[in-house]
Each structure stands twice: as C-alpha cells, then as structure tokens.
Specification:
The protein is mainly α. The protein has 23 helices and two strands.
C-alpha cells in the first residue's frame, strides 16, 4: 500500500509521524486492539478556598499549632466565657496576636499599611479593659475590639480584595469568619489526627505530633491529680501551697468541666479560622465602573425631585431653629423654658440627622451616574443642599445639648450623645467631599475616624468625668443646689474616687456625706468588691483597685449599703432623677 499521499504535481510528499497508541485515530471499538484507561475519575475539582486551605495545612507545624490553640482555649474559658472583662480580656486579645500571628503570616506575604495602622486602636482598646470596668465600656469595647480585629486580620492575611472599611471588605470578613472556618473544620481535624507514613523504608504509618500532644494531655490529667494528692499528704506546706493556688485559680470540679468544654469549643473554631487566614484566599468581587453604574437601580431625576421636595421641609425646620434657638427672640409656649424646649426634641433631632446621613450615603451609592461616572449636577446640588441643612441641625443639636447639660447636669448618655454628634459632623464633612469629588473613597476615612473615636472613648474615664462635673457644679453653688445621688449610685467604680471628694470635703453637709458613703458602698457591692470578690485575677482593673483602696482607707463595708441601713431617701428623690 502506498502511503506517500502524493497526488502528483507540486504536492509535497507527506509522511505522517508514528503516533502513540493512545493518539491513534479512532478505528472502532478499540485502539489497535487496546482499550485505553478512562481518565475521567468523576471526582469534582476542589474549590479554590479548599485548595488554599490544604496548602496552608501542608505548610504548617501541627504540634505547636495544637499547643497554642489549647492555651488560647483555656484563656477564653477563664475570661470571655466566664464573663470576666478586666485584665483577662487584655491578656486574651494580646495572646491571640502573639500566639497565632506566626501561623497566619507564615506565607511571607506583605502586610498592607492599613493593617498595621489598625493595630494602634486595637492595642488601645485592649488596654482599656485593664483601666475601666463599667458596663458601657465593656459592651462598646468588646464590640469595637472584635470589629477592628476581624477587619485587621482579614487585611493582614490577604483574605480580601477590598479597601479598608469598604463593602467588599465587609463581604470578605463575613466569608472569612462566618463561612470558611466551618467549612475547614473537617480538614483541620483530619490534619491533626491523621496518620503519616514513616520516612524509613518499609515504615508503618504513625500518628502526627498534634495527635500525640492531645493524647498526652488527656493521659496527664489523672497522673497529675494522683501526684498532687500524694505530695500534699506527704508535706503540709506543699498542701497549703496547692490550696492557695487552687483558691487563686478558682478551681473546682464544675470549673474544670467548664474549662474543658469551652476550650474544646474554642479550638473547634479558632483552629480552622487560623487555617483560613493562613490560606489567604480572597474571591474577586470588584466591578469596573461601567458594571457598577449599570447595577445602580435609582434614576437621578426621580431621586433629585424627591430630595428637593424634602429640602423644603428641611428649610421650614431650619427657620424654626433660627427663630427659637439660635436667636433667643421667639416666644415659646407658656410654661415652657428653653431647657425644656431643648430636651423635648433633642433625641428626635439626632434621629433625623442619622437618617438623613444614611439617605445621602445611599443616594450616592445607588443613583446612576453620568458618562463621566459622576452624579448629575442637579443631583449634586440637591445633596449639597440637604447636607447644608444637616449641618445646621447638627449645630442645633449641639446647642440643645449644651443648654440641657447646663440645667440638668451631666450624664453618661449625654456624653454619648455629644460624641455621636461629633461623629455625625465628621461623616457629613466626608459626605460633602464625596458629593463634590465623586472619585474620593471616603469609606476608609470614615472607618478610620470611627476606630480612632472608639479607641479614645475606651480609655476616657467617662463615669469619673460625669461624677467630677456634677460634684464640681455642686461645690460651685456653695452646696446650695441638691446633687443627684441616685444617678451617681448607678455609675461604675470609676466614680468612687470622685465620690470620696464629696464624702470628705469640708463644704459638704453631714447628710450629703452620709449619702456619699452609702453610694460608694452600693457601687462597691454592685461591682462585687466586698468579701474578697475582687481577688479573681482576670477581673482586676485599675479603677477597681482604686475603689478597693478607698474602701480600705475609710473602712467602708457591706453594712454601709442603703438597704442595710434602711434609708428611705431614695424614693423621695426618685422624682428628681433625669435620664
């Protein structure tokens, strides 16, 4: 048979090359009498985040990872899950960075500057747990330290493609902390407990170091307990030392069960979380300007019409402010003082400011832009007009708050309202810049301002400042005005040093001194400072220690509390209590 494929003429003489049996042309049911293997195994390809997690686990040292996870779990059980929010929370937050950062950053990627900057407010807020222990500080500080930590670690690990405090970052934070850790629990546990084959020729499979550590810890528990019992019975001084340690650590059977349970719960979450952060997987969720503009649902003309209609109501409201508040020339209704007028609408005004700020932000985000990727000029003018009216309302709210505090003294809620007004003013400034300069990314600036304000708030002695202001006002009036002792009794232990001034001052009359002593005892009893309750090491804080010093200095005990002395002045003064 002639295989030259030459048809004559100038056609080249084509000689086909010898092919592999698997590459032969299909000639029937078999390839030259040989059936090739089926390479379609049917196994689906691993998702990208799963491959990244597997690579992270392969490059990790499991034994030290398990050990630091056990230590962190015990710290969580003794501080967070026990409700102790003093120095224990400072140690817990610091331990997270110290123990797990070497594993998270094991990939050698460059850490963005924003992640380094967020460490500053994070460190300040963690320090605040060792300074103050008020309920408001505890809630806000816990919320702030968690919010900053999740954003900072997501940026540090490279698990996001978004900018700081952007919507893309929030989406990646939710994936990193709420989705991927639970997906990675199985592969993390498998990596800890799986067997590996010995490198020796013909060697058998052996347990990983992490498995050996866990088994060793379980076996060591009864061994340690038996040795402690034997040595304690052999030496009285050793038994007394062990007793003191058990008392300091608050150990009991219920506490041991509590520690084991919450340590395991913490490890089941923190270990796959660290694996997720080390993997550094981030899905691409960025849209170009054309796609983003096409996804905006609001028409600019309709939005502008609504904004101008709302602007007329804002203009009418601002006119009332100029008449009755900025220039004290308007006639208020009979029987209404300016202090009462300021108090009556303050919180409603703050709500309107917050709502208006949110409306402006949503308008900038969801209104369709023009060809230059800018809001139309008429929409910008409407937004700037609303922003101007919002600034006037912020000034009005500030003036109302100032008059209100001058008449009714200072409270924690009024300080919080003032801080909220300052933050809204900052947001409005950046919002105005966003309206004028469409390309300006203001989310990072607003988020950074919020982080800084939360850090400053956490280390500010709010309760102490409130008590100091009210007591100073009482002394400034030559003790002629009555001080609201009921409100002072609701403050935290940070107010105790200021109440000591009221109790020991020569200007204070005997009845007020007795009330001040009772208030100090009530605050101390609420904070569990009597009967050695302050000895728990995780609960220690600077303001609690100062309060204990005041109690010891003046011999104040639980017998000085109001209900032990049968005081009835609390009910008489309840009508004078203002929020």
């Amino acid at each position: 048979m002639n295989n030259n494929f030459n048809t004559g003429g100038n056609q080249p003489n084509y000689q086909p090359q010898q092919q592999h049996p698997y590459q032969q042309p299909y000639q029937g049911a078999y390839y030259g009498g040989y059936m090739p293997p089926n390479y379609n195994t049917g196994y689906p390809k691993k998702p990208p985040y799963a491959e990244a997690a597997d690579n992270a686990l392969n490059n990790m040292k499991i034994a030290p990872f398990v050990l630091v996870s056990v230590i962190f779990g015990l710290l969580c059980s003794r501080s967070f899950f026990s409700g102790e929010t003093g120095i224990g929370m400072t140690v817990l937050g610091t331990a997270f960075y110290v123990l797990f950062c070497p594993f998270i950053l094991g990939r050698g990627k460059k850490i963005p500057l924003s992640a380094w900057l967020l460490l500053i407010p994070e460190a300040v807020i963690l320090l605040s747990f060792s300074l103050y222990s008020g309920v408001m500080y505890t809630f806000l500080s816990l919320l702030a330290v968690f919010a900053i930590a999740v954003c900072q670690t997501t940026l540090m690990a490279g698990c996001t493609t978004g900018r700081p405090f952007s919507l893309a970052l929030i989406s990646d934070v939710c994936s990193t902390y709420l989705a991927y850790p639970f997906v990675n629990i199985g592969r993390t546990c498998a990596a800890v407990f799986s067997s590996k084959k010995s490198k020796a020729p013909g060697g058998k499979k052996e347990m990983t170091a992490g498995s050996k550590i866990i088994i060793g810890l379980v076996i060591s528990i009864p061994v340690v307990l038996i040795l402690l019992c034997i040595f304690a019975s052999a030496d009285e001084m050793f038994a007394r030392l062990i007793s003191d340690i058990i008392k300091a650590l608050n150990l009991s059977l219920s506490q041991i069960i509590h520690d084991i349970f919450f340590t395991v719960i913490t490890m089941l979450y923190i270990m796959p979380l660290v694996v997720t952060l080390r993997a550094g997987y981030a899905k691409s969720n960025q849209k170009n300007d054309r796609e983003l503009n096409a996804s905006r649902p609001l028409d600019a003309v309709i939005v502008t019409t609504v904004l101008f209609a709302a602007g007329l109501i804002y203009l009418l409201f601002v006119g009332v402010q100029f008449r009755y508040l900025f220039f004290v020339g308007g006639n208020l209704p009979a029987g209404t003082s300016y202090a009462e007028y300021c108090r009556s609408g303050f919180f409603e005004l703050v709500f309107v400011i917050v709502l208006t700020t949110l409306v402006i932000a949503l308008t900038c985000m969801f209104t369709r832009h023009n060809a230059n990727d800018r809001l139309p000029v008429y929409t910008q003018c409407a937004l700037l007009l609303i922003t101007l009216f919002n600034f006037i309302m912020i000034i009005s709210a500030s003036l109302r708050l100032y008059i209100y505090i001058d008449v009714y003294n200072l409270t924690v809620s009024r300080i919080n309202a003032g801080i909220l007004i300052i933050f809204m003013a900052i947001c409005m400034v950046f919002t105005a810049l966003k309206i004028l300069f469409g390309k300006l990314k203001v989310s990072a600036f607003i988020g950074g301002a919020a982080a800084i304000m939360l850090a400053l708030y956490s280390i500010a002695d709010i309760d102490g400042c409130v008590a100091k202001y009210n007591i100073d006002q009482y002394f400034a009036s030559n003790c002629k005005e009555e001080i609201d002792v009921i409100y002072l009794s609701d403050l935290s232990v940070a107010a105790v040093p200021q109440l000591e001034r009221l109790m020991t001052s020569d200007l204070t009359d005997s009845v007020t001194k007795k009330k001040a002593r009772t208030v100090i005892a009530d605050i101390a009893n609420t904070a569990n400072l009597f009967e050695g309750d302050n000895n728990h090491i995780a609960r220690w804080s600077f303001d609690r220690q100062k309060a204990v010093n005041v109690l010891e200095k003046h011999g104040i005990t639980e017998n000085d509390t109001s209900w032990n002395n049968g005081y009835d002045y609390w009910e008489d003064e309840w009508d004078n209590y203002y929020y």
